[in-house]
Amino acid sequence: MNYFNQNIVLQSDEYLGEDGKIYCKSCNTPRSWISEDGEFKVRCLCKCQQEKQQKLEKKRQDMIHFEKIKSLKELSLLGRRYENSTFDKLDMNRPQSFVKAVKRCKAYCNNWKIVKSQGYGIYIFGNVGTGKTELVACICNQLIQNLVPVIITNFLEISKKLRESYNREIETENQIIDKLAKIDLLVLDDVGSEKLFKNNGESFMQEKIYDIINRRYINKMPTIFTSNYSIQQLIDERGLEIRTADRIAEMSNAVMKLDGTSYRETKILKEKK
Questions:
Q1: How far is it between the farthest Cα atoms of the chain?
Q2: DSSP alpha helices (H): ranges in the chain?
Q3: Which of 60, 93, 142, 192 would you label with 42, given CA atoms 20 to 30 Å apart?
Q4: Are the CB atoms for 189 and 178 separated by under 8 Å?
């Protein structure tokens, strides 16, 4: 605090009240108070100065919040197609299974503290174009707005990153695995899109995928999976190791099947008419 004697010089927007206090001409609230013995005045902020300071602080906090969201969006790997996907923008004129899935996904976000503490996961599967990726993108964006770190990726991208790590000095294999294993929410999209084969080069990828999923399982980290296939089909038709599929099944507290044909194809056909 700054202390001023009784001969304090008034600013152009101030006046001296009958009580000896300094007042603001704009809001007529004190800019000083007087000690009990009346020997000195102590400067303070008037109402309009306080409001101005509060606005500046809010602007500063908003900027910090914006930069954090921007950083989290870059981390998420959502991409431009889904960077603005939100629940309120979804076309709900779809099968009932999609409508129910939206409701459950909203609840997943709204109860994030419980979801995170319990490590709840979701498995969403259905035909191509039924809205699986769109749904999980909405989850990611809502959580990002609440400053929750998320990553959405797939086996193919993970494989590329791991192979690149041997030729580049950006991230090591261990750093990539650690990031995916420790991120608050990991979304593995389109599981089974690449058929995996045993006893060849794909055994490398099987090991790494299991490592990521198993570490998240052990540490109860929330994980969401989307696929065109049921969990059993991942084993029978796509070559996923049983131990990995078992972990996925155990981690998926909710399993949701989206019925119907491709929403994207239907929408394109309607637009052409």
A1: 93
A2: 47-76, 96-110, 112-118, 132-145, 155-164, 173-182, 202-218, 231-236, 242-251, 263-272
A3: 60
A4: no
Short-list 247, 243, 249, 176, CA closest to 203: 243
Contacts of 162 (CB under 8 A, 6+ apart): 173, 176, 177, 205, 208
User: What tokens does 63 get?
Assistant: 């900027």
Full-model pTM: 0.81
**Paired tokens of 101:** 């899935």
Is the Cβ–Cβ distance between 206 and 244 less than 8 Å?
Answer: yes
DSSP of 51-109, one letter per residue? HHHHHHHHHHHHHHHHHHHHHHHHHHT--TTTTT--GGGS---S-HHHHHHHHHHHHHH
Identity of residue 12: S
Q: Are 96 and 108 in contact (CB under 8 A)?
A: no
Given this model, what pLDDT does residue 271 score?
Answer: 46
Rounded Cα distance between 90 and 102, Å, is 9
As a whole number of Å, the CA-based R_g of the chain is: 28
The span from the CA of 127 to the CA of 262, in Å, is 7
Burial string for 135-161 (b: 16+ CB within 10 Å, else e) reads: bbbbbbbbbbeeebbbbbbbbeebbeb
CB atoms within 10 A of CB 189: 21
Q: Say whether 224 sits in a helix, a strand or coil.
A: strand
Q: Are 72 and 149 in contact (CB under 8 A)?
A: yes
Which tokens in the block code for residue 3? 């202390």
pLDDT in tens, 240-271: 999 999 999 999 999 999 997 665 545 544 44
